[in-house]
Amino acid sequence: MKKYILLIITALIFTTSFAQRYKVIYENIKSMDENEAYLTLEAFSRSISNSHSASLYKLSTIIEHRISSYDPFLQEMTIYQNLKNLNLYLNLALLNLNEKVARQDGEYFDGIAAENPKKGPTYEEINTALQTKLENLKLYNKYFEQNRNFLLQAATKYNTCIELFGEINKRNSKLKDLYFLVDESLRQQLNDLQTNFDSTLFYLAELQKSVTEYPMLNYKFKYKLNPINIYRMHGLTQANFLAAEIQLWDFRQWINSFYKTIDDEVAYLHNNVKDLDNQHENYINMLADNNINDVPSNYKVPQYLLNKIYKYDFISLAGSLMVCQQAQIDYLQQLTSFQKDTSFFALNRNTPTNNFFSLSISKKHVSDSLLTDFEKNISEEGMKKYSNVFIDKYNGADGLKQYVNEHADLNKSLFDSKINAIAQMMLDYNIKDSANNHFLIYNSDTIFAQIVPQTEIKAPGYYIHNKSVTTSKQTLISGTYVSPKKEMLGFVASIDTAKNIQWLKQFKQGAALRSCLHVMPINAEIATIVTSTTKTGDITNFMLLLDGNTGDVKQSMKLNVKEMPRKLLVDDIDNKFIIVFGGKSQQLFTMEPNNMHVCCLDSKLNTAWESNIPFTGYICNVVKTNDIYYITGGFSKIKGFDNEETDLENGCGFFEYSIDGDGNWANDHYYDSETASYPLWVSKVDNMKLEVVSLLNNAPQSASDSTTIEAAYIQYSFDGYELFRSK
Question: Minimal CA–CA distance to 353: which of 373, 335, 366, 380?
Fold first, then answer.
């Protein structure tokens, strides 16, 4: 190609006429492609001493065409060089243009409109065309630089968005955590991200406007905003700004959604957790003070609030606190469900609270465990998420650990306090006078029924010793009636919830002192024991079965036992009655030599079997599990199955004797401690364990004179193991 061009130029050198030389070039370039024509014209221009306007014009038209085909954003250096040459050629062509040149070479200025096509364009027309080309060159330069700047700014701002979003990702790997960890530095990053993204869209809009005003190739710069739905996967990839449709991550929408979440849901959680924490604090304080009236029964943290908390944080310190406080409220409500009502406790001392302590221990264990778990969950990040509570109110990790210790101590102190209170109730009922009385309505008359120990029966009136409630919610009471003539009778009565007596039966057995010591319902019948004691101390016991609807006697049997009846168990599975007798004192906790006599009656009140156990102590209760009867109480001296005697030096311990359904000794267990332990109350928890409230150190008689007592709650397995001890 170069050789061909060189030959043409060499040939032209020997051509004497300048016009003839260009005419040869002009005719030859018609058959050449654009590149060959450009090289030929460029070589020709360099070979002559003076600039030739027509050839320079022709060069400019080739350059203009070239520029229009170049990519303004990918071939900028090529365009810059061509623009430089175009400016040079146009100015040189204009500089060397005159009337003579126009007349001589007018035909070579093809593409310029002429008023007289045959003569070709005039000087003025050529001059105007060259001036127009120079103006178009300036316009192209303007938009070329402008578009490149808009595109560069848009891409730069968008890349900054990606960098900022990447930094936000590095702050926390979880978006849900990030919502709760917004600080001033993060807000600044979000503001910078918003500003740069807005700038990106601004420059893209300006670019779209610019390429509409001055099109370059087929660029439209349309773009699509894609939602950032998956944190740490979306929003981190760069965009191709020269694509037919630019794919952009919609950072504006993400920021708006982010702020909406923290302004709505996170703020909602912050406010509600704070308010609920204060409310829980009030509930716990009220329950600690035994005030249950203003605390909702069976309180639960609103589930919708917990759902929202755990929506953002699976292991949430706030959620852990809410659940922890709920468990403590539940535990304290369990404790306060047993109010300090001596009459209620005394009349239900066999099973006073439907496994009150067992439920309390279970709920205390849950509360203590959750407090421990809460302490383990304490972390800087967890506290920052709810700084308005954990930092502002509790003063951080140290304050939260102090909170855990204080509330664990509260759980224990209230449990111990409740045990002491119930132990005191037992002492009040069995040893001291009591001011707890009932006004009962009978045949439109008001009966004043006192609740006092049997030893305190003096004036005429009704004295309640026992109470029981049937499955149909029928309340039964029994005790002693002293007539105005000082005649003592046993009585049994059925009362409704308004304390109206539905029926009342009195029993006279011809002795100096008569009372119905026990009343227990079984189906539609009522089993009760009427005990008569003479002035000389002789004891006579009768077993009665009453009609539950009328109180009429259905069956009666005199029991040939000379001791006081202590406990009556109705075995409605085997249709048996187990009665435990022991001693002659009317004081329950008298530590005296006893012949513990266990009597089993069948459904017709016939004696099925009897068993005797020598010991020194007192009887608390008899329970049944797995076809074994367990007799429990306190002792200082006792003989076991092996006929060996156990003698305690420290005062008193707890014993458990087991007898099978045929009256045979099955086993025995004795529980001793380092200090004297006097069981006041024993109850069956389930078929695996029983529970005991024991007075520590002081015997019940001496403890009754003290201002404070100390008691312990213990759970034992039926096979002789201690499972739990409060002290």
Answer: 335
